[in-house]
């Protein structure tokens, strides 16, 4: 390691296409689970907001799920989904995303002031119209705050999947370590941080667009 | 092969019963290393967080730092640390501490800032100095938030210590990676199950701490809040 610089720029220049492929793979592995998590969290959150008794145990279960180390969970799935498959990494990531998004959805739906809800009813909104026109928009800032946490964590967690053979950019860490060559590791960390930052900025922009009234950040401090 | 035979293979292996590769020794290694990382992280992050929370200066920087830390890949930091500083437990300790510190920092800041401002003013009004207010008023009222921060950090450290076995650290992760390297899935599965159990046990410990170890006044306050909810 004495004469090896931390970054050899020519290596990055020579492997741009390769890095691009890994980045694309990484984005799919990390972000598709967050999208699935969102699609499940909204209806589940609606049900939980309506039946708080069902929410308590569900929240406790997801609290425990969220704390399970990803390495261990990936390893335990190998007999079912196989080594080096997308499913082995994406199934646990979906549950981690759901564990973040479900509480934020419920918090968002609960945050609608009763007066607003009653006003909507008084104006003649039916339950469905009230949901789509009042309650869901009010939950949007919370949902986006949850999505930011879920997406950024998912992007960094997905790299651990390299240990079971499918981790997108995480592969660069194992490659660099095995060859005592830090350049791929630095490139991997930088690309993962850049991907996370980009997704985060897109979500902040989405909040500006979808919920311009939510000037200050709310909810989802995890 | 199924789970029953994998787990019985794993637990009945004489090497896993005594000696350096025994389950008790691996768990002790894992706990010692995680505890050490958590201790260093707390020594850095908690005093700093209390100060930032009390003065209100640098809160934005803390929030940004916490978001940035969440984006850092553990495997990348661990492999890079070992390549730069050489194989050894100290090299791995650096990324472990770096990943455990941000949740503690955020918890300390949020906890102090969450203190009822009227209570703070009252404490000043009856003549307490700023350090006294921080120590006797803000710290107890920050305790629940701080405890939640420790819980997040502990879970993070236990997971990262498992990953760090890839670069040669001891602990339960050894089973996971040795099993993969020797193509003995029973060993990997046994190690992974133990890691999951350890993480759940840590969670449980913090639930119990939150219930029984918080200052009495804070507990009463929380019970009242639960009742009105």
Keywords:
heterodimer; A: 222 residues; mainly alpha; disordered C terminus; B: 229 residues; 10 helices
Largest sheet of chain B: none
Query: Helical region count of chain A?
Result: 9
Order of helix and strand elements from N to C terminus of chain A = HHHHHHHHH
Radius of gyration of chain B: 21 Å
Query: Which strand-content bin applies to the residues of chain B?
Result: under 5%
Mean pLDDT of chain A: 90
How would you summarize this macromolecular structure in one to three sentences?
By secondary structure, chain A is mainly alpha-helical. Chain A has nine helices and no strands.
Give an overview in words.
The complex is a heterodimer of chains A (222) and B (229). Chain A has 222 residues and is mainly alpha-helical. Chain A contains nine helices and no strands. Chain A has helices at 9-14, 16-50, 52-66, 70-81, 86-110, 114-122, 127-158, 170-178, 182-210. In chain A, helix 2 crosses helix 5 (86-110), helix 3 packs across helix 5 and helix 7 (127-158) packs antiparallel against helix 9. Mean pLDDT of chain A is 90; it is low at 217-222. With 229 residues, chain B is mostly helical. Helix content of chain B is 81%, strand content 0%. Chain B contains ten helices and no strands. Chain B has helices at residues 3-12, 23-55, 59-70, 74-85, 89-113, 117-125, 130-164, 173-181, 185-212, 216-228. The longest helix of chain B has 35 residues, at 130-164. The mean pLDDT of chain B is 90. The interface between A and B is large, with 47 and 43 residues.
């Amino acid at each position: 390691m004495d004469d090896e610089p931390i970054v050899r720029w020519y290596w990055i220049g020579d492997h741009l296409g390769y890095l691009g492929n890994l980045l694309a793979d990484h984005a799919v592995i990390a972000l598709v689970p967050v999208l699935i998590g969102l699609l499940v969290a909204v209806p589940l959150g609606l049900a939980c907001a309506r039946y708080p008794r069902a929410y308590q145990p569900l929240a406790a279960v997801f609290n425990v799920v969220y704390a399970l180390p990803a390495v261990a969970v990936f390893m335990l799935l190998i007999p079912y989904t196989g080594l080096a498959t997308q499913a082995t990494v994406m199934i646990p990531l979906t549950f981690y995303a759901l564990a973040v998004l479900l509480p934020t959805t419920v918090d968002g739906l609960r945050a609608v002031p009763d007066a607003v809800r009653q006003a909507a009813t008084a104006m003649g909104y039916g339950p469905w119209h009230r949901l789509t026109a009042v309650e869901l928009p009010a939950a949007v800032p919370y949902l986006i705050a949850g999505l930011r946490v879920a997406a950024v964590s998912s992007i960094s967690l997905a790299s651990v999947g390299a240990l079971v053979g499918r981790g997108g950019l995480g592969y660069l860490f194992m490659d660099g370590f095995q060859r005592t060559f830090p350049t791929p590791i630095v490139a991997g960390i930088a690309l993962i941080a850049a991907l996370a930052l980009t997704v985060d900025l897109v979500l902040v922009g989405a909040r500006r667009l979808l919920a311009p009234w939510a000037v200050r950040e709310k909810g989802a401090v995890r | 092969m199924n789970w029953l035979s994998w787990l019985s293979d794993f637990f009945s292996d004489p090497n896993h019963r005594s000696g350096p590769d025994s389950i008790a020794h691996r768990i002790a290694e894992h706990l010692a290393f995680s505890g050490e990382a958590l201790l260093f992280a707390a020594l850095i992050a908690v005093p700093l967080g209390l100060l930032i929370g009390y003065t209100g200066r640098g809160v934005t920087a803390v929030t940004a730092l916490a978001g940035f830390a969440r984006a850092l890949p553990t495997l990348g930091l661990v492999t890079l640390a070992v390549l730069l500083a050489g194989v050894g437990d100290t090299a791995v300790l650096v990324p472990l501490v770096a990943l455990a510190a941000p949740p503690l920092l955020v918890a300390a800041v949020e906890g102090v800032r969450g203190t009822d401002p009227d209570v703070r003013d009252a404490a000043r009004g009856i003549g307490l100095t700023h350090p006294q207010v921080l120590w006797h008023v803000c710290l107890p009222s920050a305790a629940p938030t701080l405890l939640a921060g420790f819980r997040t950090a502990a879970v993070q450290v236990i997971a990262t210590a498992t990953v760090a076995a890839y670069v040669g650290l001891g602990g339960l992760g050894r089973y996971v990676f040795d099993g993969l390297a020797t193509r003995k899935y029973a060993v990997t599965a046994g190690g992974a199950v133990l890691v999951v159990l350890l993480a759940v046990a840590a969670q449980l410990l913090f639930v119990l701490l939150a219930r029984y170890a918080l200052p009495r006044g804070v507990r009463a306050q929380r019970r009242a809040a639960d009742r009105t909810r």
